[in-house]
Amino acid sequence: MSAWNVEDAVKMLNGRAKDHSLGRCAEYTRIAIEAGGIVLKRHISAKDYGSSLLAVGFTTLSPDVSLFKAGDVAIIQPIKGHPHGHMAMFNGKIWISDFKQNHGYYPGPTYRKIKPPVTIYRYGSQSEQTFIFAPVYAVDHSLA
Q: What pLDDT is stored for residue 87 in this prediction?
C-alpha cells in the first residue's frame, strides 16, 4: 500500500471547491483523493466508491463518529431525486465535495431531513488511527 499525502489531497479539495453544487461530487472528491498519491477505481455513482476506498487502504469508522480528521471521506446513500448518492471529504474544518458544505456531510436540506445512511472512511489501518472513542471510568477512591 502506497502512502497517501492527506495535505496534498486537502489542498486540491480546497482549491477546486465552488460555493454551490455542480452535481459532480464524486469526480471532485476522487480528484482530490488522487492528488494525495493514490488512484481509485472509477464509478459512475458516488454511492459506489466505498469499495475503491477500501481497496487502497481506507477503513470504515464507527457510524456515530463525531471527531473527524482532515482526509476523512463520507459516502452517503441515495435519496429520491438523487440516485447517485453523495461523496465528500473533510478538510479539517468543513466537508467539501464539488462545493463547500457548511452544514456537515449531508449536502443539502433534503439530505439533512431524510438522513440516509452514511459511511465514513479514514486512510490507514485501525492501529494507525487515533482512537476516537475512549471510555472514561470514574474511580471511587473511598473503597480503597
A: 98
